[in-house]
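Recap quiz, item 2
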Amino acid sequence: MTSSVATSEHETGSLRDRVMDLVRATEIDGRLLGMIVTLIGIEIGFGLYTGGSILSPVNLLTFATQAVQIAIIATGMVLVIVSRNIDLSVGSVLGVVAMTYAVLMHEVFPTTIGVDTPYGWLIALGAGLLIGIILGAIQGFLIAYMKIPSFVVTLGGLLAFRGLVFDISGGSTQAPDDTQFVVLGGGPLGSLGGTISWAFGAVIIVAIALYLYYNRRQRRRFGFPVRPMWAEVGIGVVGLLIVVGGVAISNAYHWPAGLIEQYAAQHGISPEGLVIEAGVPWPAVILLAVTLVMTFLATKRKFGRYVYAIGGNPEAAELGGINTRWTIMKIYILMGILCAISAAISSAQINGATNDLGNGYELLVISAAVIGGTSFAGGVGTIPGAVLGAIVIYALRYNLQYIGLPSNNQDIVIAVVLIAAVAFDTYSRRNAT
Amino acid sequence: MSVQQQPEPRPPAAPPPGGAGAANVTPAAVAGGATAPLVEMRHISVAFGGVKAVDNVSIDVRPGEVVGLVGGNGAGKSTLMRSLSGAHKADSGEILIDGKPVTIANPRDAKNAGIETIYQTLALADNINAPANLFLGREILTGVGTLDDSAMEDATRKVMGRLNPNFKRFRSPVRNLSGGQRQSVAIARAVHFNAKVLIMDEPTAALGPAETEQVRELIRQLKSEGLGIFLVSHDIHDVIDLAERISVMYHGRLVGTVDKTDVTIDEVLGMIILGQPPDKLNREQIQSLR
Ligand SMILES: Nc1ncnc2c1ncn2[C@@H]1O[C@H](COP(=O)(O)OP(=O)(O)OP(=O)(O)O)[C@@H](O)[C@H]1O
Ligand SMILES: [Mg+2]
């Protein structure tokens, strides 16, 4: 026995089987791999169609930054759907929190602690987080302890919290934001800068290597089969290439002329020939952190194990002595936190908050999770899958818009992708084992 | 013939129908009081809406003993066992462990009391693998509080080695396992945690002959280690083979508990099918079962 179940269960045969065996030896989720290939396919396709212009760093960064708001919430939606529930309220929760940030920073703080105090934005973030937690806890309590179906509770949340946005804002759009807060939204001023981006990339590469090493050692400790060395190295190299590529693309985006002139004037230097690399945008850093933490919770903590067990068989979870109600309530609290994080990015990006911010996000978030392989039957879904799902949706949206397809037709394309992804899952599951 | 019928409920409850049989005191006393019961269930009743699934039933098991629980479909065997494993709270009655009354309000209480269960439905989460199911609710953690999947897999390999040595699929979701393999996982889960009392509800229903023999051997071994085992089975031969005593249920009631040395298979069948204790059955009725 050299690697996983693959070797014992599959005779090598056709080329397809042999390729599948190679993939299996790496123990990489085939679903994720498929999505990455799809994403690369989309980018290459549109790249060819537009003669490469769509692949410019600024375009890639723009859609990636837009996808972040959906991707962050989608990481939690995976757990919601895995546990056989749904959350339709995410857009409205995001709206409430974003409006809270805006109102605090533009109406409350100026008359209390003053404008642009260094910690004002942190207080606002803390308040938003708290509101997210409270709204999530209320819904979670109704669903888990009062046994009201999550569809009903969160449909109520969708309506009620949107109404709340208007109450908080007094009906008007709130702008502009705290200058430190705006950094969270990305863009040239909201990125790490060239040098720090490379340092950031280096840290990630070291982390990947350590993780691979730790896993291997852990398996060895019990004498379990480990991945073949070539697969181990291959994964490391692919990871390295992705990180280097990501940082290189981010650094290839330079500050636009207007900002350069401002910066030069402020620092009393000549704008002539001055090039500043933007680097990795903060939203991307935040998304990476959220994805890691959520994946950790889902796969390495009891909480995640229980969420999946509940989704697989609620009765078995109950008979296992799991506190299923508290587990479900925690999922919704987590959703509130994720909505608050996403609200910070959304609101920083538009430099304020509008009354309809987050409208319709629930559908995008659910689509991202489902495209990413989360099943409504419960028990199945991965967090990296949902993140990739969000990126696929926004890659399509952005690129279709770029080539001038009207937005209603963009929706048609995304709908086709959504259904195709689920059809693929249904088909491959039927053919599995 | 030491037939225990349903013990008289304590006053002021009404006498149970058909319960006016031979002299009966507490089950332990009838059995000679050699060893005190490990678990005693007294006057347990469970109703679902209007259906009395379990009606004033008392049974017990002693250390190192297998008690077979038999009866037709819907007789109430699983419901009675589920009230002991904490899956469903009994409407009335009491449970004693080592002679002390205990409250079993949920599965956790039962496990803490040393009662492990193999459910008829297996109670496996299909989407996670065998080690995750085996340790569901009792995960092994690393020093920093994360799931120690390697340690759990290692432990699972060890238990399965004893139960079903051919089992190799430790990484697949149990959905992908055969019915018998799934049953092995459920059995492994029940025996891994050093139970005092084991409830086995149809533990071999899906097993092949070799695996069934393995489970029989396991039951004998656990018995010799001093566990008390409730074995629910439709296989009379299995029950006669493994059990010391046999409790028979019929339409929610306990027909009686008999010593296996005192009865014939036909008499047990009579109890199951006709719902009457052997001394109430006549030869013709037993003959008619053939
Ligand atoms: N959750 C439930 N809700 C309603 N009725 C139930 C429930 N569980 C069991 N019953 C009823 O209680 C009675 C006893 O069922 P139980 O499962 O205990 O029978 P059993 O003796 O285990 O049968 P089998 O040999 O078929 O497993 C049946 O009439 C059944 O319909
Ligand atoms: Mg049953």
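Chain B has two domains: 23-114+196-288, 132-194.
DSSP finds ten helices and ten strands in chain B.
End of item.
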